[in-house]
Amino acid sequence: MANTPIIMDNLQFYLPNSSYGRVVVSLVALTASYLAGLTIYRLFFSPLAGFPGPKIAAATGFYETYYDVVLNGQYVFKIKEMHEKYGPIVRLNPHEISVDDPDYYDEVYVAGSKRRTENYSHFGKGIDFDGSHFLTTEHDRHRQRRKPLEPFFSRSGVSKLEPMVHDLVARLVGRFEALKGTRTVIRVDHAFSAFSGDVVGRVCCEDSSDFLADPNFAPQCPCCRGLIPEMAKKHIADAKYERVSSKGKETYGRISLFRHIFNSDMAESELSIDRLAKEAQVMLGAGTASTARTLDFILYYILANHQIRSTLREELRDTMAGYPEKKPSWADLEKLPYLQGIIKEGLR
To answer: Which of 5, 124, 187, 250 is the most exposed place for a label (fewest CB within 10 A)?
Structure first.
């Protein structure tokens, strides 16, 4: 203890004389201590500490940032290397792991009756879908928001939409037929976006926009509709104040997803126009882009592979014999195993 004054005198020699300088040094010391403690926690005490992977990835998110920002999106390939080195489960950053094992899918994604799960809150940060059921974090609240949607998308609910889908399919085929022999290059990605945009617009909002009628298949409109759902907001406001009174009116051309919601048992607190506008963004955006891209993939592989094309044509021969006068139903198409396999592979 006799040497304590000497040590303090030595420390005073190295510390700045001004109060401002001492504050700066204190902040630097506190920051360094915090970072050191955070690193130790992430490496040894975090719930993810036991999973294999590069220690630097476990310690800091800058490792992932370097590959994605500096190396322009290369982290996905680095993850593949990590799996080859560390196994089917690796730690990607301080907060996430990657599972490369299809057999483990049903253990991670389970029904609420098996295990209550919370949505990963970081998943949708920055895309402005907060409030939609898709990005609801709490298990019970997500269930509360999703449950009223289920009857609309049930088998019987979707079957009611068949006439509308048949009509739009016929119009899409008609556009292709009209361009046949004209040597016109058709952007099928735009055509499928226009088709799926028309379908989901009618499903969600009774929207009568006709993207299929646009000479170029309105390449910009389906995307804009997902990002700026002004049309959806107007429909939601109308539906909220109209309150369709009879379930018997749920027929194509009258009932929409949001009219259905207002006639469901969803809590009044969940029926604000702003929140439902977020639902519209999710439904319109996902129903347009993901459906169109799936159709793109399926069509490409059918056209690129003669064996796939000929097998599918043979399977469809009897079912499509009376087309277009006789249109196959959803139930008819479900009985075709090769077609169903193509659809599932496209979705995968």
So the answer is: 5
| pLDDT means over runs of 10, the chain (348 residues) | 53 61 81 93 95 96 94 95 96 94 84 72 70 81 84 85 91 93 91 91 78 86 52 77 54 67 83 85 84 94 96 95 89 94 93
Six token digits for residue 325: 């006068």
Cα–Cα distance, 216 to 220 (Å, whole number): 10
What counts of helices (H) and strands (E) characterise the chain? Answer: 17, 2
> Rounded to a whole number, what is the distance in angstroms from the first to the last CA of the chain?
71
Q: What share of the chain is helix, strand, coil (3-state, %, to 5)?
A: 65, 5, 35
Task: Give all strands (DSSP E) within the chain, no chain letters.
Answer: 89-93, 96-99
Residues forming a β-bridge with 160: none
| Residue carrying the six token digits 């220690």 | 55
Instruction: Look up the pTM and report it.
Output: 0.72
Cα distance between residue 39 and residue 21, in whole Å: 27
Could you check whether the bond before residue 324 is cis, i.e. omega within 30 degrees of 0?
yes
Q: Are 301 and 249 in contact (CB under 8 A)?
A: no
- Between the CA atoms of 180, 186, 189 and 193, what dihedral angle is there, to the nearest 10 degrees? -70
CB 273: neighbour CB atoms within 10 A?
15
Give the three-class secondary structure for 178. helix
Q: Are 80 and 90 in contact (CB under 8 A)?
A: no
